[in-house]
Amino acid sequence: MSSPIVEARNLTKRYGDLVAVNDISFSIQAGEVFGLLGPNGAGKSTAISVMTCLFPPTSGQVSVGGHDVVREADQVKRMIGVVPQDLALYPTLSARDNLIFFGEMHGLGGQTLKQRVDDALACVALSDRAHSPVQTLSGGMKRRVNLAAGLVNNPTMLFLDEPTVGVDPQSRNHIFETVERLNRERGMTVLYTTHYMEEAERLCHRIAIIDHGRIIALDTPRNLIDMLGGGIIHIGMAQADEALAAAAGQLPAVKAATFLPVAPSDDGAPSRRVLKVEARNASDALIQVIQLFSDRRADMLSVETLEPNLESVFLHLTGKSLRD
Ligand SMILES: Nc1ncnc2c1ncn2[C@@H]1O[C@H](COP(=O)(O)OP(=O)(O)OP(=O)(O)O)[C@@H](O)[C@H]1O
Ligand SMILES: [Mg+2]
User: Fold this and answer.
1) What pTM value is reported for the model?
2) Most CB within 10 Å of its CB: which of 68, 89, 117, 221?
3) 140-154 residues labelled b (16+ CB within 10 A) or e (exposed)
4) Assigned architecture for domain 229-305
């Protein structure tokens, strides 16, 4: 991992009044698996569309392999593979004929094309289904053909947009292992978007967490999880008691205690409040907080210690769950 393959500087994309991607900057190093992790509507697919020359940014610059995605789109397209979020396959054509079609679009032909198509099918373990029309394949197999289509031009840089959504566990694992192998054995650089944090945690060298079009954190999974420090405890209460929160914040094992912003409830019922306790040490903090509530005769409706994972990091940074 040395030189950057992708460089995005102040990338913004608007759809009318809506700012889908809001002034993001990052670079992806050669040989890296880089994750974009964010909830529905965060702007992941929009960012990928700009990076893969589907449409230009509203402002800012992106280069891939040193080529500007607007001015030098042809050079960029030659070195990238794109696996879109929605299946882009011809259902009546066989898996093989779909790949031949994509290969021809990349200007391949003859023996090279045949070899690339065979390699791509082998890579996703579908050589034995090469002649099946895509519409007769299972959902997971279609996803694998979709992945193969992104590989026929033997790209240096592969963009994968939620490649495992709606896929059975076996195919999901298969897609996973294929991406790991492409990165490890061929040194392929990968951008991977997902809202499954366990996937991102396992696969990605670095992760940008994106919310409402902005990057709110960017680091290795380990360092992101270390942001949780000694642990986070959520305590449900019927209403916000600011004096109690202030007292909790003063406890020896507690770094800070604040109420999470109130999420609007669907049925208009008063929503309960959640006191977020950032601990220096989770178990000590828990004992001290329970003692404090007991001394003050305050009701605890629920207590939850967040697991040290990326879901908790997202909750910590935004006050909301990645999948709500
Ligand atoms: N063609 C479009 N026209 C108008 N608005 C759009 C268009 N495409 C996306 N948007 C909006 O831009 C925002 C970002 O959408 P985008 O598809 O990039 O999110 P995403 O992170 O890929 O979400 P998901 O996880 O659901 O795929 C959303 O608010 C979406 O409604
Ligand atoms: Mg998307």
Assistant:
1) 0.86
2) 117
3) bbbbbbbbbbbbbbb
4) 2-Layer Sandwich (3.30)
